[in-house]
Amino acid sequence: MRGASGAQNKDPYFNYVTMLLHGDGTNGAQNNTFLDSSTNAFSITRNGNITQGSFSPYGSNWSNYFKGSGDYLSNAGSGTTYDLSGDFCVEGFFNFTSLTDVGVWGIQPASGQAGLRLTTESNLTVVLISGNATAHSIFTSSVAPIVGQWNHIAVTRSGSALTLWLNGVSVGTGTSSSWTGSNLPIRLGGNLNYSNATPYYMNGYISNFRIVKGSPVYTTAFTPPTAPLTAITNTQLLTCQSNRFVDNSTNNFTLTVTGTPSVQRFNPFGTATAYSTSVIGGSGYFDGNGDYLNFTAGTTFNIGTGNFTIEFWANKTANGSANYDGVFEADSGAAYGWFVELSSTRGFLLVVNSVGSFACSTAVINDSAWHHWAICRSGSTWYMWRDGVALTPTTNTISNGSLPGSGTARIGFAGTAYPFNGYMSDLRVVNGTALYTTAFTPPTAPLTAISGTLLLTKFQNAAIFDNAMMNDLETVGNAQISTSVVKYGTGSMYFDGTGDYLVGNGFQGLGGNFTIEAWVYSLNWSSGAHVIFDTRDAWFSTTGVLLYFNDAGNLIMYLNSSDRITSATAYSLSTWYHVALVRSGSTITMYVDGTSVGTYTYATALTDKTAIVGTATDNRQTTNAWKFNGYIDDLRITSGYARYTTTFTPPTKALSDTGPY
């Protein structure tokens, strides 16, 4: 079982860690070997650049990310659900990328008038409008939330007193004894201007959003919650805390997803339990460019007319070719065989090439959230499931026909041009048993090879994995684990300087303040740049940052040709150095072994979401002149917090995998 590196002390800022790579593992191991955990133990071949890692559907503590242009969640409630005529509390955790013209949430009609809304222009503003569209109460906070950090924000009413709370402190008050209207829907991640219904959207993260009707919850200064919120008495809505878009109140409302918000592991609480495959599992990342896994299956998947179960988790980030995403295919490319697909036009379907299909039209296939899918046959009855809820088939031309299959099987591809795009976890095929015949709760822990399991791909064999559980790292070239040169733990990440690097799929960016740090051990100062880390989406981007050694051994932070820091010292080869790049406000400081080697003032937000270790972005990946040659250990990205603002002692042991709660 893979797990923590051994560091036991909790990190008080782990809730801002968006990447943590210890590099502990087996010497020479990469992320390119995929295993079948069934008793068949099929030998799986990787085609293309599929990778695997620690971002999975399991575990607690989540948020939803809204990109600031058209993304929001909505729900109409049931009758007077959101008519907050008495005491109430609307609260949540919010991490803003910007405070300019941000719509946070709104309980209001399509006209944008009567209702309650929270917005920001620089500080927080609460607007309460009565039923005749006359401003009843408008007040603005006395202080602003901090950009790039988690802020607990609550709007409450106790009697006629309205209060705006920021991180447990009252920052604004108003008075109201009446409500704003009736039968109003909630919009989360955006709202409407009350005078002209112009939409405003949020750029950033929302976690643990809750509406309580009948109680203000908070009436005096308080310490913000340090653990996920629960559905206390009178909770009307509880969301942005699961691996999918779901309401965890007893109402269990269906949320409408507009735009492309996404579910993320980044959250205000961090984690109390270090990553392990037994608890969190793993996933495979498929980029939709024709990559797949295949193996010789013989007649294993010739299921015939008996009972069976096919299940898997999928997090679709985009629609595949021709709006079809192949999940699994028995007997690839032949007329004799069967396959499972997710289609944005036809829904969830099982196709038998020689007979027909069993399909269910589903409204949402691609929504950047985790969903559990299953198909079962029990006797002559067929079942289709999404998140434990039965789906109504629209097509069943298979009827009780046989599921044939022989030859080669493929994972992540079907037919001639239908590659999977997104994350996949726990693909399991079970012969002889229909596991789900009544509504059920989707699995909450990694699946096992129960009796009759023909295939189980768990995607848990990553050697270089993210202990923050947010990224699946692609190990390009010979990027691998080394146990020969190590700073802490049992291994480090080795790059040979000729084509090796890592790509972080799922990186969440740097936020406002940030800390990029690692232990580095360079072997070569040959001509060119020796890149440690690059966050830029493109080579000339000014909203990302590059950290590298030049061919003389000087450490350089590069934003563009004129915005940079260069150390006066040229560093030695074959020596461990702790390097850190820290942003606090508009000041970026570069440290080596805890001592500042230069600062730069840069006020522009760094919003790029690329994460490359060991080379530079764009076409620099194709030349060895930009490759790092050496070892990197304990690379950590902290997004939203400046860990070091003055001279410090570098870490004296492996970095923590847990915290803060």
Protein architecture, described:
The structure is a single chain. The protein has 661 residues and is an all-beta fold. The chain has 3 domains: 14-31 and 465-660, Jelly Rolls (Sandwich); 45-58 and 280-457, Jelly Rolls (Sandwich); 63-268, Jelly Rolls (Sandwich). 0% of the residues lie in helices and 43% in strands. The chain contains no helices and 52 strands. The strands form 9 sheets. Strands 1, 39, 40, 42, 47, 48, 49 and 51 form an 8-stranded antiparallel beta sheet that branches. Strands 2-23-33-25-26-27-28-32 form an 8-stranded antiparallel beta sheet, with no helix packed on it. Strands 3, 22, 24, 29, 30, 31, 36 and 37 form an 8-stranded antiparallel beta sheet that branches. The radius of gyration is 26 Å and the shape is flat. The two termini are 24 Å apart.
Tell me briefly what this model is.
With 661 residues, the chain is an all-beta fold. Strand 15 and strand 16 (199-201) form a beta hairpin. Residues 1-7 have low confidence and may be disordered.
Tell me about the largest β-sheet.
8 strands, antiparallel
| Gyration radius, rounded | 26 Å
CATH overall fold name of the largest domain: Jelly Rolls
Number of strands: 52
Mean pLDDT: 92
Tell me the layout of helices and strands.
Layout lengths: L16 E5 L23 E3 L3 E3 L9 E5 L4 E4 L12 E9 L5 E6 L7 E6 L3 E6 L5 E6 L9 E9 L2 E6 L2 E7 L10 E3 L1 E3 L6 E3 L1 E11 L21 E5 L16 E3 L3 E3 L5 E2 L11 E5 L4 E7 L9 E9 L7 E7 L7 E6 L3 E6 L3 E5 L9 E9 L2 E6 L2 E2 L4 E2 L10 E5 L1 E2 L3 E2 L1 E11 L21 E5 L14 E5 L3 E3 L9 E5 L4 E5 L8 E9 L7 E5 L11 E4 L4 E5 L5 E7 L5 E9 L2 E6 L2 E7 L10 E2 L15 E11 L19 E2 L1
Antiparallel strand pairs: 1-51, 2-23, 3-22, 4-17, 4-20, 5-14, 5-19, 6-11, 6-17, 7-8, 7-14, 8-9, 9-10, 11-12, 12-13, 15-16, 17-18, 21-52, 22-36, 23-33, 24-29, 24-36, 25-26, 25-33, 26-27, 27-28, 28-32, 29-30, 30-31, 34-35, 36-37, 38-41, 39-40, 40-51, 41-50, 42-47, 42-51, 43-44, 43-50, 44-45, ...
